[in-house]
Amino acid sequence: MAWANAPIKQALVFNKPLDTHVSRLLIKRLTPAYKAIGVDISIIEFDHKSSLAAANLGELDGQIGRVIGISKEYPNLIASNTPLMYLNLVLLTNKGQCEHCRIQQLSTISHNPSYPFAQKFIAQEKFKGEVISNNNLTSQLHMLRDRTIDGILVLEYLLTHHIDDATLAHFNKRIVSQKPIHHYLHKQHKAILAQLDLQLMQSAEATLEHKTPK
């Protein structure tokens, strides 16, 4: 393949993730690591829903941060060995329903299909009830309070970014799964990723165990 001998690119382009505390931390960690190996990064406005497919096609150079395992569906994307942080999947249920619910105890559950972590968790847990896809978190919370659904699976940082504490006080919140977030590059940039991993492992923030993702 021609990619194997591709020269190191001096500027990489990524889509701008949702502006959250998590995304800002990811960018804060990646920027000096890239600078140390002489690579600039450019973060542009791009449709979030199509960004994975675009990165897989090489229209973007990768993804700032994604949960581990997306290479199965997007085989041209390779993950950093070093996780940047861990992502929490939260189950929301109504107060008084059950404080430590498992999804198997629920009849209906909602999730946002734009974030595959929840969908994979539902499949892993072999949930037998009804699954309702909904891209709007506010709408999901209304459905939960009205008891149209029994629970919501949502990424914790989305709650922090979009929902105030007073609203969350109406619900039980429990972390049901945790996954590491890794940086991804298109495989034509494999040489850059190797250098970047060295920088991430040497950084003062790299306190996590370094495992090669599968």
Give the helix/strand layout.
Blueprint: E1 11-15, H1 21-36, E2 40-44, H2 51-57, E3 62-67, E4 77-79, E5 85-94, E6 108-111, H3 116-124, E7 130-133, H4 137-145, E8 151-155, H5 156-162, H6 165-168, E9 171-186, H7 190-202
Parallel strand pairs: 1-2, 6-7, 6-8
Antiparallel strand pairs: 3-9, 4-9, 5-8, 5-9
Structure notes:
Helix content is 30%, strand content 27%. By secondary structure, the protein is an alpha/beta fold. The protein folds into 2 domains: 2-85 and 181-202, 3-Layer(aba) Sandwich (D-Maltodextrin-Binding Protein, domain 2); 87-178, Periplasmic binding protein-like II (D-Maltodextrin-Binding Protein, domain 2, 3-Layer(aba) Sandwich), CATH 3.40.190. Strands 3, 4, 5, 6, 7, 8 and 9 form a 7-stranded mixed sheet that branches. A two-stranded parallel sheet has the order 1-2. Strand 6 (108-111), helix 3 (116-124) and strand 7 (130-133) form a beta-alpha-beta unit. The longest helix has 16 residues, at 21-36. It is elongated and about 55 Å long. It starts with 10 loop residues before the first strand and ends in a 12-residue tail after the last helix. Mean pLDDT is 88; it is low at 1-7 and 206-214.
